[in-house]
Predict the 3D structure of the following.
Amino acid sequence: MHLAIPGCVIIVGEVLPARPSLPFQPLAGPLSHTARSLVGVRLEPMPEPLFRKLFLLFLGGLFLAHPPFSAAQPSLSLRSETVFRAMESFDEQGDLSRSFPAYEYLRADVSTPVKGLSLHVYGWGRYDFAGKDHFANNPDGDLFYGYAEYAPADGNLSIRGGRQNVLSAGANETMDGVRVRILPLSWLSLEAYGGLASAVTDDDGADGDYLAGGRAGFFLPHGAVFGFSFKELANDGDDNERTLGVDAYFPLFADITLSGMAGYSLLNGGMAEFLVEARAPLGPLWVEPFYERYFLDNLFNTGVDSARPFRILALTENDISAVGARVRHPDLFGLETSVEAAMYQQEAPGGASWHVKALVAAAAKGLRAGGEAGRLQGFHEQGYVSGRLFAYWGNPLKAVSGEFLDAEAMVVRYDEEIFGKDASWHVSVGAGKFFLKEALTLSVAGIYEHSPYLDQELKATVFLAADGGI
C-alpha cells in the first residue's frame, strides 16, 4: 500500500522502469513508514563505452547462472536484470523526442571462506544510446546498498559496514556507516547504528552530517514483542530530526494479532506518526484492518537544510490519515481472492481533501486478474476519478511451457481540464518466456500513454534477467 497525498503531486527525478514481471502482487502489509529520504548519491556521468559494460554484465550473469564448472567456497549468488527501452513522445507543440536507454540492475551476495562473513551489493546504471540530454537532470547510476556483514550461525550477533538500509521502528534511512545488532539475553535485543545519511551528504560537504540511533527490543511471553528506539539526523551540524519511537506486536487469542508503532519528535515537541494494524480470522477469511496518521509538521523538519520536497510538506502544517482493511479468501469459488478498501484524508488549516480507493484481485491456475477504482477530492473542488485493470496469464499455449502474457490499462478523468485535456490514459501489453528452469527470463512490452503533459508517448521494453551462482 502506498501513502497518497490528496491534492499534492511530488516528482523527484526520474521514475526508474518497473520490472515487467507479474502485474498481480499480494496486497502489501500496512505502510510502515513514509518515504523520508532520497535514496542514494548521484554518480558521475558514465563514459561512452558503458553499453559494452552493460552487455558484459548481463553475459556474466548468464554465465554464472549455469557455469561449466563447480567451485568451492566462497559461494556467489547473482541476479542480473537488463532493460532496453525505446521511447518516443510528442509534446503539446508537436515536438518529437526520442531516447533509447539501457538499464542494468546487478545484485550479488557472496559468502566468504570466513565463517559468518558475507558481502552484499546491489546497484544500477543507465546509458542512453540516443546520446541526448533526455536524462541530463537525473543520475546515471546508483548503489542501492553495498555492505559486508558478519553474522555467526548462532544468530546472536550481526555487524554490517557500508551502504545499507536502516529499518528499525522509527528509522527508514539509507546510510553509509555501521550497524551492530546483538542478543545478549534470550529476552533482549539491542541495536545501534551510525554513519552518513545519503539524503544529506551532498549538501555543502559531509562536515557536521551524521545519522545515529538505536533500538532496544524485549521478547515477552507468548510471542509478544515490545521495543523503544531513538534516531537523530543532522545536516551541516544542524539537527534535522530527533525522534523517539515505540513499536509493539501482540498475539492475542484465536490467531488474532495486533501490531503498531508511534514516533514522537523531540525537536518539535509533538507526535510525528502513529499506525496500528490487526489481523484476525473470520471463518475462511482473513481480515486486516489498519489505521495510520502522520503529522507532517513534526514528521519532517522545516529548517533550510531539510531535504526537499519534505520541507515543503512540513510547512503546510497538514495531517494525513488513512483507514481501511484488507480481506483475503484462499478459495472463493476456486479463486484466491483479495479485496482492499482504504480512505486517505489530508487535513489542512484551509480545509480537507480525501482519496478513496478499492482493489479486487483474484488468481487461479496461472491466471491472475484484478481491478482498482478510486476517487480523489482535492482542495478548491479539484479532483479526479481513476480506474485500472490488470491481468497475467501463465502458460497460455499448453503445448509450450514457460511463457506468459500480461496487460494493464489505466484511465484518470479530471474534474477540471489541465492544459485543455480532461483525461490521462495508460495501456501496456507484454509477453515473455522463462528458460533454463526459470533461471533466465525474456519479456517484451509495448506501452502507450496520453496525458495533459505529453500529447502521446510510445514505449517499447525488452527485459532480460538471469539468476544463478557458484
